[in-house]
Amino acid sequence: MAGQQRVYKQRIASTQTLGKVFRAMEMIAASRIGAARRAATELGPYERALTQAVAAVAVHTDLGHPLTDERHDTPRVAVLVIASDRGMAGAYSATVLRETEKLLERLREEGKDPVLYTSGRRAQQYFRFRGVPIERSWEGESDSPSPEMVRSISKELLDRFLDPGLLTGVCQVHLVYTRFRTMMSQVPAVRQMLPLTVVDAPESDEEREGELGQVDHPDQAFPEYEFIPSAQGVLDALLPLYVESRIRNVLLQSAASELASRQRAMHTATDNAEDLITKYTRLANSARQAEITQEISEIVGGADALVKG
Fold this sequence. Notes:
Elements: H1 2-60, E1 76-82, H2 92-109, E2 113-119, H3 121-129, E3 136-138, H4 147-162, E4 172-182, E5 185-194, H5 201-211, H6 231-308
């Protein structure tokens, strides 16, 4: 009995330590998710203005651009997967990786050759363990993407799409990430980013603004513009910024989703730890009562033996 009591006390102590760790991780995630949501929200006005400017050029001119033209000279397709660097976030990374597997299978069935890019250690480790080649990976900033990381990803994907080489360029760019709706709802999303479809910008804007809790008027008419130095020059300057803005939005949505998933998972883990502590405490008390009862029985039995002797 004494051995069982020691076992339960050790389990209570270890569970209390884990509970403190879970509570600390929950509080850290809760303190950082506000900043992630603000960063995504503050990006909204800039992205809307940039989208309207690009759409205005597309509506009032008949100019083409390499970023809006479809490519048919190569079957290579770039796929960027955005997962987490660390665990303890529930099914956040697993859901994104499952959607990525579906996308890769669909692209192969269409005769395409997927080229994989990863953001986050979980995605990198998952595909490397399965022997899937990774063209390039970014890690260390999944819950707080820096401007340098955003520019690095944007430049890499733009260079690959604009590369005329058959073995180095890509004809499409897809993003797999997690879209943040509320603290309790984050859903995986698959989006084709390149080639751009700026003429259909109101629909995509409505989707992105819905992610940030903002709604614009898609039926608003564009005024007449005079483009200086030229419409082509404006497109050359705006479209790379437009791509970078969309990638930044996706990374911020994923960061907020990761923190929300980690907070929820750590809250559940803390509750489970408290339940285990209550259970082990009850079992330890039962073992202690049984030990006391046994000692009393031994004392009474010894006393009776002395009396009879």
